[in-house]
Amino acid sequence: MTALFTKGGASGLREAERPPANLLFMLALSLFLSIVSIYGAQASVFEQARMTLLDRFAPVLNVFSVPVRFVGNTFSSVGDVFTAMEENERLREENEQLRIWMHQSMALEQRLAEYEAILEPKTVEAKRYIPAQVIAENGGPFSRALVLSAGTKDGIRSGNAVVDGAGLIGHVVSAGKNASRVLLLTDANSHIPVYIEAVDTEGLLSGTAERTAEIKQFAGRPKGALEVGMRIVTSGTGGALPRGLPVGEIVRLTEDGVEVGLYASDQGAHLVRVVDYTFPDPSLIPDEGDELDIEGAGEAAAALETAAANG
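Above: the chain sequence. Below: its structure as tokens.
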């Protein structure tokens, strides 16, 4: 009995001496919070000290940063200088090339003036430009046409060329007193003689009714291979339009001709110019069947020379 009592009593004492788990947790949490607060206080002290030192040494740092910025700006400026030197060299080469072209152009212009002084050609000049507003599209029997807000009272007549800022857009096919109708180059009924400058060849530009135009008929064999990008202007053949109006350029070679990209866009056109050209008097131009009296002209010239010598 005594042994049993003694054993049970020792076990009870040991259980009484063991601390509860909640107490251990609370002690650990208190220790952790104490460490955190001490570290935070130290961190705050360190931060304040760091800011104090920064405030004290800010002027010194500013002084030392000046040469650093100067060196950095110097290197940047040196890089800009080299870039500017390369750009200047490129511009110098371009200016030299432009100067060469300018001298060549001036020489050709002078030579052309000398030839014109000798030949005295009768050039076709624009008499006047008549501004007109587009008031309707697809007017009349044509699928690709424009109606303008100007007519005969403004000086417009049938056959006048119609241009915009890029080039020829069409020509007047009928003119009333207050309005006129323009047949566009893209209409299937449009056929105008044109000239391909690079190969010295004339052809007939026809519309396709699909906002494009093409050349399938040529006046003779082209003097060279047709290529994309070749410039096309009016030829002046037939006397309907003057020679040299910009039309477009070759954009595609086809089996039976070329497709032409027009300079002027008839889509969304609002304001155009009708050009009235002054052509030579047809009565002064001899017909193909007429024979020129060259012998009589020679005799008249000889008589004038004799009279001048005797005078």
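DSSP finds three helices and twelve strands in the chain.
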